[in-house]
Design goal:
Elements (H helix, E strand, L loop, with lengths): L1 H30 L5 H10 L6 H10 L2 E4 L2 E4 L12 H9 L2 E5 L2 E5 L5 H11 L6 E4 L3 E5 L3 H14 L9
Antiparallel strand pairs: 1-2, 3-4, 4-6, 5-6
């Protein structure tokens, strides 16, 4: 029984690390031109994320990132794709559980380990209403300058989510 518990704990920790790593990979390829896996591996290492080439290759496949002449891009944004799914919409679909508004703040709830990749996707979307984001393990806090800008941002995010959420205001 102890070995199963220990094994489950290790798998959970590995999964959380993978989710965080995926978020960092998405952030890096969205923010800058990454020409090779080696360059991506070095940039991850600079953030204290050490990965092997084999792991990085699997991550790129799981994230559906492909190498183009402009660097790594999501398959969803390639020209031959008829209805591209933006990285934020994909991250919201995968990680967002609930939206909780509070004056000029927007709190996004995620499963454990989901906040970092969701925050990276929100940052990558470069919403004008966003003053900043803070991510924990299962919560993303989005700070906006005013209640009105929070309402505008909330509507934009909700428009990208195809299922109803509990905390709508």
């Amino acid at each position: 029984m102890y070995k199963n518990t220990e094994r489950r704990a290790r798998l959970t920790i590995m999964s959380m690390g993978k989710t965080f790593r995926h978020g960092q990979i998405l952030r890096l390829v969205t923010d800058q031109r990454i020409a090779s896996q080696e360059e991506l591996r070095r940039r991850l290492a600079a953030q204290k994320l050490r990965v092997t080439q084999a792991t990085l290759s699997r991550d790129l496949q799981e994230l559906r990132l492909v190498k183009t002449h402009e660097g790594y891009k999501s398959e969803a944004v390639l020209p031959e794709e008829s209805t591209p799914l933006p990285p934020l919409a994909r991250a919201l679909g995968e990680f967002l559980l609930d939206i909780r508004p509070a004056e000029n703040l927007l709190v996004l709830k995620t499963p454990p380990g989901g906040a970092q990749p969701l925050a990276a996707a929100v940052d990558g979307a470069k919403f004008t209403e966003t003053a900043g984001t803070v991510a924990g393990d299962d919560t993303v806090l989005i700070i906006t300058p005013s209640k009105r800008s929070r309402e505008s941002l909330q509507k934009k995010i909700e428009a990208l989510v195809s299922r109803p959420l509990r905390g709508r205001a």
